[in-house]
Fold this sequence. Notes:
Layout: E1 2-3, E2 8-9, E3 22-28, E4 33-41, E5 49-57, E6 62-65, E7 78-82, E8 87-96, E9 99-107, E10 112-115, E11 124-125, E12 128-132, E13 137-145, E14 149-158
Antiparallel strand pairs: 1-2, 3-4, 4-5, 5-6, 7-8, 8-9, 9-10, 11-13, 12-13, 13-14
Amino acid sequence: MWDGRAKEWAQRFPSSSPSPRRTRMTYDKATQTIVLFGGDIEQYGCCDVFYGDTWTWDGVTWTQQFPGSSPAARTLNTLTYDTEIGKAVLFGGYSEPGVGLNDTWTWDGADWTEIQTTFAPSPRWAQAVAFYPKSKGLILSGGVVTGFTAVADTWFLLSSRR
């Protein structure tokens, strides 16, 4: 954990933790926890192992969540908290090397809900997303699309209370 005051990292030893993986996580202000979804671990000489599990960190330990619905296993997606709707938002990633996803999901602290959008960025992974308070929505920039081509486009997801 990072202590912004002392400017030091401190290792924690929680009683439970997700398995080692490459993944994304975000702070969920509504539940006051860190949310982690999915990820992968590279198996050299074989195939990647993809995860589709959800974990939360309360400052002391990790707790695996068992939602009724959930995004497919994936890695290199984005996971960002949207203060306007009070939920974490997950977008894209991939579950097969070189083949991107472009679905959008929200986490309400107990369950994942897929959001149907009229328009969406092309399937991609490794993009950047942040909440932009001035426009009350999420800004997505860049990423890698199917075929391993880097893109430099920008998308805006307007938040709305659901």
